[in-house]
Here is the input.
Amino acid sequence: MIRNYFKIAFRILWKNKGYGFLNIFGLAIGIACTGLIFLWVEDEFTFNHYFSNRDNLYKVKDRQTYDGTTYTFDATPGPFAPSIKSEIPGIQNSARSTWGNSVLFSLNDKPIYEQGFYVDPSFLTMFELQFVQGNAQNAFNQIHTLVITESMAGRFFGVANIRENLVGRTLKVDNKEDYTISGVIKDLPKNVSFRFNWLSPFKIYEDHNKWLQSWGNNGVVTYVEKNPGTNAESINKTLYNYVEGKQKGATAKMSIYPMNRWRMYDSFDNGKEIPGRIRFVNLFSLIAWIILIIACINFMNLSTARSEQRAKEVGIRKVLGAGKQKLIRQFIGESIITLLVAAFFAVIIIYISLPAFNILVEKQLAVNISQPVHLFVLLVLTLVCGIIAGSYPAFYLSSFKPVSVLKGIKLVKSGNAGIIRKGLVVLQFSVSIILIIATLIIYKQIAYVKERDLGYNKNNLVFMYLQGNLKEHYRVIKNDLQSTGFVQNATLSNDQVLQLGSNTGDFVWEGKDPSKQVLITVEGVSPEYTSTMGMHLNYGRDFYPDGKSDSTNVIINESLSRIINKKNVLGSTISQGDTRYTIVGVINDFVYNNMYGPAAPLILFSNQSNCNVLSIRLKPGVQIPAALSNIKTMIKKNNPGYPFDYNFVDQQFDQLFKTETLIGELAGIFSVLAIFISCLGLFGLAAYTAERRTKEIGIRKVLGAGLGKLTTLLSIDFLKLVFLSCIIAFPVAWWIMHNWLHDFEYRIQISLWIFVAAGLLAIGIALITVSFQAIKAAIANPVKSLRSE
Amino acid sequence: MFLLKDINLTIKQGEFVSIMGPSGSGKSTLLNVVGLLDDFNEGEYHFIGQPVHQLKEKHRAQLYKSHIGFVFQAYHLIDELTVYENIETPLLYQNVKSSERQAIVADILDRFNIVGKKDLFPAQLSGGQQQLVGVARALVAKPKLILADEPTGNLNTKQGTEIMELFKQLNEEDGVTIIQATHSEKNAAYGSKIINLLDGRVEK
Here is the structure.
């Protein structure tokens, strides 16, 4: 019986190659899309699955409340980790880590910057790193040691040599000391939360940063391994006021946050967890389903449209004794076979498109069709689609009455089927139009934010992190740079301007509400900061060039000035503990950290002691490559032994919008796919309709209808459907995008022309698709069409 | 408005009945009713002792599946199936096992002398050959009754005669009851009884 179905299914597919191709092609694309997105989602959901004990691993979250708003950070005090390990019974192990350090390593004059962390020895065991040389227990027995990854080993010692015994070899760090390699570990896969190439004992970092020893300073990440038998809630109860118990006034509230939620949910608003990356996962999954449904709708439409061809067969089979059940099973069986063929081609499409997709989403996805889960999902997907997409045509076809079809009575009564078919076309096009509108709005929003006046000039601005002697020899270097003729100005600052990392709530001023704590960003800079950056001084003066006279003077931004709310803010003082500072200038707000929001309150200090970044303003109109080459020479002259590692502020700025840009690109791709598949279906339907009306067209031609009139006649019905789709799509698209935009403080207004453009585009594409068939039918010889009757 | 009125017929097993009448007289309708393909609004219909009018759809389907074979004027073979597969189809719907099916179909192919054509498609056969296949298909499930609606309507004289001879043979040698609807007096003569229809009624 099943063999019979197979034979018939293939023969019928072969007999109608054109429609079969349309069907299978559309379905293959739909399945391929779903497959690619499935691989992406799988990668996201298996994030951190590398760590088998992840159910017991946590990161400590620190909540601080200022002025009614609770901020959530990952920063904890230095003594916190060892303290909770010894004092809290449910905590089996703890480890501190820095946030990520880019350090210069060199081996025999080969210097490379590598990213890594300073971690407690317990980190090596808690996170089950796979040691290929050395072991986790002893790796940090000595202080100046390094555990490196195989790929880092390959970069220094040569890929062919990483199997050699590297334990005991040394690498020079920061051109100063030699560290001994005590272990080599396998590289971590891409889908984990850590990205590092080396690990070194935390003690090194601790010794250089004595401020970490205070309970009032939060400067390191703390990881915790919980006892499996203990409840996280009970630990969190203990942790809530733990820090305040150690030092009065240290009001940070601690809690542990499970590793299983790091990737998808680690997002907080006012202290409460809000959906993080899971939103994207849900969004992309939704889009995958939509594309697949559109393809299945095509299948349903084409199958029912061509049902008249199968009517006779249905009638005969019924006469020969086929019950409705058997017929339904036969047609669903045919659908499943078509789906299986489509699935086969889908896998080929996935293989071909995966490299490009990987580049787009920056992952290393692999098809791995032999993997049981993948195979299973593919088969289930195919079967479900086959059954669902095949059910409507199956029920429709099997309901034909044998007597009517055998008498040759044409199925004029296609009323219901016609409406459903039209409804499905409207649905397809509505979805496509919504996607087009979404794409246009997303791109517009991104462009809008990128063009935002940040309050300083981000173009032609280079920055680099200070290494070696750069800080000590800053003055000399600055002069040298300016003497090249390419550099207009240079300045030092704690952080790079897009990401200012230090803030505190300790500042008070006369008239400040004592009950409210205000979180203020603090930044130490060299005197020429505001001029190099191109910031606008609204009141008062800039810092004196000598960099010493203003040791107790500060410049604040408009935002802070508004909060202080004094008539004459210049000359007034602001204090932190026992130190008093005088406000000598107010600069216009500039945007940092959150590109969509307003500028948070900020204080600039004329203090270079903690500066880490050198920013260089290029003269306008210079040739960039020449400028960079000159700067490089100058920097290297003063700071030999370090590679010239620089960034452009405007390029870093663009990087901040990677996620939004990715969303925009994906929306664009999906709109193209959705419209393409919808048009495949429309093409098939138009062909079929033209075929069915061959006789009518022949008669009209004979009666004198011209090409234009005939084309209009055949196209108008479809165009009405697309027009209806527009009407449905517009409000839905507006509602969705309005909500999406609402998340951004700085956003565009949705303008009318976007809808008009999307509508015209959809109608235009549909018109082209349909008119091809219409014209073909209209120029056919009427004699031929009439004779066949 | 009626298609058939005041029909009172009794047909015994083994009879060969011809129903004659002009176009539109209701011949096909009568055949469809007898063959349980169509319903009727008034009256009774007993088929081998079963009161068809009182039976559920499923039961009725069961009856005609196993006891009635149809032969059509336009043959109505399934174009996508070979001769073998066309003949086999009724057996599939009766859930006959694969090996049994093979045996039965082989038998009939043999009997009708079309073994060499079993893998051809209907489009490759002449009208007469197609009808032959149609008759073979009607017979394959060993029905008690064959209903033939203008079986020779699309055939030339020679082909038509062959088919009618075949019917005669089936009726006399295998005891198959045959009811045929026909225009042709020549064909009608093959039967043992003739019923004339005019405008839906039996003409006396």
Summary: Residues 157-173 of chain B form the longest helix (17 residues). The longest strand of chain B covers residues 177-182. Chain B touches chain A through 26 residues (CB under 8 Å). Chain B has a mean pLDDT of 87.
